[in-house]
Design brief:
Blueprint: E1 2-8, E2 16-22, E3 30-39, H1 42-45, E4 58-59, E5 64-71, E6 83-86, H2 95-98, H3 108-112, E7 124-126, E8 145-149, E9 153-156, H4 171-183, E10 190-194, H5 198-209, E11 213-218, H6 221-229, E12 233-236, H7 242-249, E13 254-259, H8 264-272, E14 274-282, E15 302-305, H9 313-325, E16 335-339, H10 343-351, E17 357-361
Parallel strand pairs: 10-11, 10-13, 11-12, 13-14, 14-15, 16-17
Antiparallel strand pairs: 1-2, 1-4, 2-7, 3-5, 3-8, 3-17, 5-6, 6-9
């Protein structure tokens, strides 16, 4: 099978949309999905800054959604014609996977970031037969088709706007899951979201849907305006005495804070804005050592890293689509679509902050 894909051949080069070849269909437990749309995530673009760790050339993209066109065996639980959202890869048998924590799979990094499932490498090549790194995040969905494990494909209602659903498998899942799963926020709780990008705004929407009061912090006025439309109290990141302002807005301190920025200053501000026993979650990768100010972890305050929203995608994705149907999680307002051929324009717009969540449409 031949189809177009966006191939990254070097860490500092643009994507090249070119023909690729899938030489064999799905094996036992796999499904072949015709991609309707794939979100562009900061993790896809971070491959450039972690040069040498993720193998190239590769087809990236890990927020895919599409239609099952072929199944491998009868035990996939999916049928041809099913609409699915694709999520991250996991081994399925380690203690974390068996314990409903697939984001902490013992093999998460090698499966998703550093080479994928090598047994599939020979099946996925460029038009000249050159090997492509197999299955980025179990998907490689910047392409017309994606070959995935069936357990990482979540069936969704065919009446939903399939081309827009892909980010529910990672970016929106991460922000919403941190609030709904890790924090378990509910009515009467207060949540501070540091950074109003795709993950942060998903957290804002989820916290509002859960009945919590929300404060959103960002340096971009347009992102703050959007957060305010989702019922958050907006605060510029440069606000003097930011923790003090947050404490006043949250009646003495927030119960939860979520940092999506990786900024040491904002992490410290978020900790200082917590009430006693408050919890700050980190979802962004830290690229420098984190130095905590004196007093930030006193009075029972704590900090933890959250991966993929502590989510079991098969449980959280349907919950988020139900909230969308009810008008309580309007994630579609964060999305701008681009033809796959415009993948480099989408990356530039994402880097410039001109779009919250680009979604590439292959067909």
């Amino acid at each position: 099978m031949r189809f177009d894909a966006a191939v990254l051949r070097s860490y500092d080069a643009p994507f090249a949309v070119e023909e690729v070849l899938l030489s064999a269909g799905p094996a036992e437990g796999e499904v072949l999905v015709r991609v309707a749309g794939c979100g562009m995530c900061r993790t896809d673009l971070a491959v450039r800054s972690s040069a040498g760790r993720s193998p190239l050339p590769a087809v990236l993209g890990h927020e895919g959604a599409g239609v099952v066109v072929e199944t491998g065996g009868s035990g996939t639980g999916l049928d041809v014609g099913d609409h699915v959202v694709l999520s991250f890869d996991s081994c399925g048998h380690c203690a974390h996977c068996r314990g409903a924590a697939p984001a902490y799979c013992d093999s998460f990094a090698p499966l998703n970031l550093f080479g994928g499932r090598q047994e599939h490498a020979a099946r996925f090549t460029d038009a000249a037969g050159g090997a492509l790194a197999p299955r980025w995040f179990g998907q490689s969905a910047f392409a017309g088709f994606a070959l995935v494990l069936a357990r990482n494909a979540v069936r969704v209602d065919p009446s939903l706007p399939l081309e827009l659903l892909g980010p529910l498998g990672c970016g929106f899942l991460t922000g919403a899951g941190a609030v709904l799963n890790t924090f378990g926020a509910g009515p009467g709780d207060t949540v501070v979201v540091l950074g109003a990008g795709a993950v942060g705004l998903a957290a804002v929407m989820a916290a509002t849907a859960a009945g919590a009061r929300v404060v959103a912090v960002d340096r971009h006025p347009e992102r703050l305006r959007l957060a305010e439309e989702f019922h958050a109290s907006p605060l510029p990141a440069a606000t003097p005495d930011l923790p003090g302002h947050i404490r006043r807005l949250t009646d003495g301190g927030a119960r939860y804070a979520l940092d999506t920025t990786g900024s040491g200053r904002l992490i410290n501000d978020g900790l200082l804005a917590l009430r006693p026993t408050g919890h700050l979650g980190l979802v962004a990768r830290l690229h420098t050592p984190l130095s905590l100010d004196v007093g930030t972890l006193e009075q029972g305050r704590r900090i933890s890293h959250i991966c993929e929203g502590d989510a079991v995608p098969a449980l959280l994705v349907p919950r988020l689509t139900a909230l969308w149907r009810a008008g309580r999680f309007p994630f579609d307002r964060l999305i701008r679509t681009y033809p796959l051929a415009d993948v480099n324009e989408a990356e530039r717009d994402c880097d410039a902050g001109l779009v919250v969540k680009p979604v590439l449409i292959p067909w």
